[in-house]
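URGENT: need a sanity check before tomorrow's submission.

F., can you look over the Pentacotripeptide-repeat region of PRORP domain-containing protein record below? I want to be sure the sequence and structure line up before it goes out.
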Amino acid sequence: MKFLFKSSSSFQTFLPRSFPSPKYLCSQPQTPLPLNSNPNTNFPEKITSDSHFPSKPISDSDFSGDPTLPKSEDPHLTSSLQQDGSLTVTHVINTLLTHKEDPKSALNYFNSIEYRRGFVRGVDVLCVLLHILAGSPQTYKQVARLLNRFVSGDSGPAPVVFLDHLIDSAKKFDFELDSRVFNYLLNSYVRVDKFDDALDCFDGMIERNIEVSLRFMNILLTALVKRNLIDKARELYDKMVSIGVTGDSVTVHLMMRAFLKEGNPWEAEKFFKEAKARGTELDAAAYTIAIQAACQKPDLFMAGELLREVRDRGWVPSEFTFTTVILAFLKQGNLVKALRLKDEMFTCWKRLNIVVATSLMQGYCKKGDVDSALELFDKIKEDGLSPNKVTFAVLIEWCCRNGNVKKAYELYTEMKLMYIQPTIFIVNSLIRGFLEDRSLKEASDLFDEAVESGIANVFTFNVFLHHFCNDGKVNEACSLWQRMVANGLVPSYASYNNMILAHCKAGNMDMAHNVFLEMLKQGIKPTVTTYSILMDGHFRKGDADRALDLFDEMVNVNIAPSDFTFNIIINGLTKVGRTSVAKEMLKKFVDKGFVPMCMTYNSIINGFIKEDSINSALAAYREMCEDGLSPDVVTYTILIDGFCKSNNIDLAWKMYSKMKSRGLQLDILAFGALINGLCKNRNMDRACELFSELQQIGLSPNISVYNSLIRGFRNVNNMEAALDLHKKMINEGIPLDLQTYTSLIDGLLRDGKLLLASDLYSEMRAKDIVPDEITCTVLLNGLCNKRQLENAQNILEEMNRKGSTPNSLIYSTLIAGHFKEGKLEEALRLHNEMLDRGLVPDDTTYDILVNGQAKVGDFLSGVSSA
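Structure tokens as predicted:
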């Protein structure tokens, strides 16, 4: 294959430098490389799937035949070897030239003298031999073999020098230049991983107007991309474009791979579109990379379009391509599209692999459909696909999250039967699941198993530690801490935070600070969570000043407060009755960049409500709305409850209406607060309407709602309705509490239904519900009003037997009852007994004893209406 020189003058200036003396026809001799040497054979493997292009640099094994051609029986060659023992470079070149028309003999001659004493192979000798071999179809492939061996050494000339020697020798000895020699040289540099030399060779060929085969450009690009030399690959491609070579499908594939390795899917996509626009015939491999780029962006619409185009071209997308797109859709939460692609994958006779199956299960789980995930799990097993460790980890974790720890443990047992060793992540998930399920024994057994087997880590201990600390079980937490240290595990900052939390919840702030100091001693830097827990502990103890001091300390050690911290301070100040201070602090926090949340204002509004400052609560509510925050259900519940307690039912009802107009659905707490307020105001019609409404929207009334309604019906003397609610509670399995029974018994005693009240009292005692002072007072008052003094006295005696001390109101009620019946002696005895117990009679009791029966009626009536 011929090519043109840029200018013949370039060789005239080079010749004197290369050949300074007519006696020598080579430059400085080079150290020879024996033919039996073992050059580096590590070269890039195939990146493109196109069989029309080489997947790696050409090596010796690519050529057929024995690398050493048979020795010639040419008598002239034999005579030449016998007559010349010096083997000078001049002599060797001249001898090679005599075999110019017989390349095999030339190669035989070269092989014969390579090991002879006195011969030093020079680059010019090699150049002459290369030109001779390139001239025959029978030997031109030996060019690549010789070049591979030559460039693998460390003493060869620079690539551009080699190029010039090849050109000079061709010019001087009248060889027809073949660009394959130069391309084989480029390939040889790639083959021995001399990428800088390869790039210099490429540049030299371009500068000398030597045609570079696209095949060998792609080989060089392949090597650069595979070795992550992306900048060099970019530079090479830019030079290709500068000489008008945009490449083929393989080039597109390689450059897109390069861009993806850089994490730049946008440029990969752009490159693909440009290649497509200029009419480059793109293959399936290029489309595969384009789809991968679209998924990485992600541009799932484009990924879907490209996948459709692949199908339209008659290609069958690979399993890898389907997997890539399905995983991309799942990552974006589009389970429906992922499932469609899974079905399409089946139509292409592609088997569902475990990666896709596991990801689909996780997609189901994230959508809250764990049952479908488990169904898919059973289906893949039926189809012969074996779940792996990741599959079990996903299902076990989500079963635990959804409260189905029993199924999680079944999966755990199944994976062990399959000889798949559970990871500590799986074990930790199960322990956490058992603890949340309050299955302490199962959690403990699994924990002990993990510790004994040696797989338990600090996170395993932290799971249990958090459970104990959150429940305020300080002793158990301390024992677990000691066990953790004994097992050689170093507590983490989370471990210390948990212990600090435990002591704070127990109200032992001294111990909490001791753990904090130990944390500092061990070189573990406290986090903003650490300080926030301590601050919250001090607020719970009512020590707001110490909490604020900790805040200042945290800021001084350059720990930035979080929104969690700011909210703790706001909420803490409202809990200690300093809501106005909290409001001022909020302004300062906002100036520091804090963005208040709904929860923040809820704390302030609730604080003002508790301080009976309704106007301030409404002002905070209005400010919240002005700041662009939408009040939530909690906000309205706080306001409704506050208005009801302050007897502002109209305001409460307005809040309820505003809440509904904003599309907020009341929760059971909001309904309960409003129903309770209406019942206290004896507005039972509206209360019943709300009761029906909460049931219609699917909420289940709780014990608090029922008790409010029962009290309300009792207060309006409608015990029939109250008893109906009692029956409804029993039918729905809602356990009655002391408050329920007290209200019912009180109402029945007022109606004079002593037998029915007695039955309810017996029912209550059969459920081991112990009457308190309020219940006893209600009983005594009702019995005394109905002149059942003996039964009333029995109540007092029962209290004495059970070690419960009656209060002043109980004695006063009994005294009033006996006085009303004219049993003054018993009334005085009870008075003395009352004094002996250290109880102080109130003014009403003395009025009864001194002024007579007129006061008794008023007293008993007052007790009954309480």
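My own read: DSSP finds 47 helices and no strands in the chain. Residues 775-865 form a domain with the Serine Threonine Protein Phosphatase 5, Tetratricopeptide repeat fold (CATH 1.25.40.10). If you see anything odd, call me.
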